Amino acid sequence: MENTRDYLKLERSQEWREELRKSLKSKDRTSLIRVQMPEENPIERAKSHIEVNRGLTVQMAVEEAKRCLDCPDPTCITGCPVSINIPKFIKYVEKQDFAMAARTLKETNALPAVCGRVCPQEVQCEASCFYTLKLKKIPVAIGHLERFVADWERNSGKMYIPDVEPSNGIKVAIIGSGPSGLAVAGDLIKLGYAVSVFEALHEPGGVLKYGIPEFRLPNEIVDVEIDNLKKMGVEFINNFVVGKTATIDDLKEEGFQAFFAGSGAGLPNFMNIPGENYNGIMSSNEYLTRVNLMNAAHDDYDTPVLMGKNVAVIGGGNTAMDSVRTAKRLGAKRAMIIYRRTLEEMPARKEEIKHAQEEGIEFLNLNSPVEYFADKNGRVNRMRVQKMELGEPDASGRRRPVPIEGSEYELDADLVVVSVGVSPNPLIPQSLPGLNVSRWGTIIVDENERQSSIPELFAGGDIVRGGATVILAMGDGRNAAAGIHKYLQNKNKK
Asked: What is the Cα–Cα distance from 252 to 96, expressed in whole angstroms?
């Protein structure tokens, strides 16, 4: 079948999928071994910001696609927060029609190249794969294949831009250009709305740009995804702080009829221990923003950033891993993770922990800082740490760390990056007195349509969840887009 029309015809009849099933029996498919993602050499990559994962070759991708059983009840789809038709795109990969595989991804996912890199597939679609649920085997490498397809399309020079309906003239404002906001924008622009995305920083992308290092997610990848949304008609307005530059009431006067708050959780948490205000102690948000978005690691930029020989990163999540691996790349001789639980309880992705270990990151588990000390100039130079042991499970279901009396000791540390969680951006809630928020400051929304107590305001991502993954934020965005569409259709019928 030589063109897209032929494939679409076959797809409707299901003949081509039956053809693939017959060409390779299920027993043959389940006997195939999952591909391993090629990676850059740990010693070399720890000296630069090159991307660690190198991507699959065509041959590797096709062979991995053959492992998909195309289940009658594809539980992988229900495991995906944005409901990608996973068997469909994988079968296109097996057929080596990568252009149609890309189109399939873009039916429900505005950021496939991003999700193929940073989405925790191992606890979502791959955790729901038939191999995992029924066969107790290693699942199909769905994330690797998604990345392959998105990269193939980008490198082909023939990016598919999804069709959009004629403009209906109804204006919608998206506050924040992170993953939830981009997902809302992608869905609403397809439906014909006039979508404007307001971003407080000087570049769009939100946490994708300021929070994730280029060795995991190159900025170029994010820029390409955003450029696709621009080509679909989405307007991006940078350096615009909703609630300060203009209020939501001001935007209503400009004709905006609905709003989506996706301004994230950019307020860092600290531990409130003695010495925490010394120079050289900062949040992971500040540290990563300076390096990732403001190019502090490049000699031709003047963005200041503190370097350290002995760098301690406090925390065990993905952001902590990003921070400590960044410090290693900026020349730290000793880059340490200090985490109060064991390696098994660490919330970071297993892949990120593995990569950090390979790069020489030191893990000081069952340890927690209790005090910092400084030199005569007020710059941190050492810290006191206390050893911990695990007690009974806490509210998270993990065993609670308990201090061991008399176990304190000191470590040299001339840079400390605190990565113990974040709180929602308070600006939107503060500017809307009638908005219902939780005691943690998160916006309370309807679970399905993400509508807040203010009917025209919807919200999703970290400002609702308080801290979550890129793909969960995008799932919120898709649900909110459906909710906004329903709300506006009902409103404009009256």
From this structure: 48
CATH topology of domain 171-266+424-493: FAD/NAD(P)-binding domain (3.50.50)
Mean pLDDT of all residues in 127-149: 96
Residue intervals of the chain classified under CATH 1.10.1060.10 are 4-156
**Which residues lie closer than 8 Å to 153 by C-beta, 6 or more apart?**
98, 99, 102, 159, 160
Q: Where in the chain is the domain with CATH 3.50.50.60?
A: 171-266+424-493, 268-422
Neighbours of 144 (CB within 10 A): 23
Q: Determine how many CB atoms are found less than 10 A away from the CB of residue 88.
A: 19
- Distance from C-alpha of 300 to C-alpha of 298, rounded to nearest angstrom: 6
Residue owning tokens 């992988």: 76
CA distance to 20, 86, 150, 294, 303, per residue, from 101 (Å)? 15, 10, 9, 35, 41
Which residue do the tokens 């809630």 mark? Answer: 429
Question: Which residues are within 8 A (CB) of 282 and not within 5 positions of it... i.e. 6 or more apart?
Answer: 306, 416, 417, 418
For residue 65, name the pLDDT band (cuts at 50, 70, 90): very high
Computed from CA positions of residues 81, 83, 87, 88, in that sequence, does the dihedral angle turn out positive or negative?
Answer: negative
Percent of the chain with pLDDT over 90: 84
Parallel, antiparallel or unpaired: strands 380-393 and 367-374? antiparallel
Query: What's the CA gap between 92 and 96, in Å, rounded?
Result: 6
The predicted-structure confidence for 333-365, as pLDDT tens digits, reads as follows 999 999 999 999 999 999 999 999 999 999 999
pLDDT for 394 beyond 90: no
Q: How crowded is the C-beta side of 144, counted as CA atoms within 13 Å?
A: 24
Helix (H, G, I), strand (E, B) or coil at 225: helix
In CATH, which of 1.10.10.410, 3.30.565.10, 2.60.120.10, 3.50.50.60 is domain 268-422?
Answer: 3.50.50.60
End-to-end CA distance of the chain: 49
Q: What φ, ψ does residue 81 adopt, rounded to 5°?
A: -60, -20
Q: In this structure, what is the dihedral angle of CA atoms 403, 404, 406, 410, given to the nearest 10 degrees? A: -60
Q: Could you give the 3-state DSSP secondary structure of residue 121?
A: helix
- 357 within 8 A of 336, measured Cβ to Cβ: no
Show Cβ contacts of residue 13 under 8 Å, excluding neighbours closer than 6 positions. none
Please give the Cα distance from 90 to 101 (Å, whole number): 7
396 has pLDDT over 80: no
Task: Kindly tell me if the per-residue pLDDT of 400 is higher than 50.
Answer: yes
DSSP letter for 204, please: S
Q: Which residues contact 134 (CB under 8 A, 6 or more apart)?
A: none
Residues whose CB is less than 8 angstroms from the CB of residue 389 and which lie 6 or more positions away in sequence, other chains included: 366, 401, 402, 404
* CATH architecture under which domain 4-156 falls: Orthogonal Bundle (1.10)
* Predicted structure pTM score: 0.92
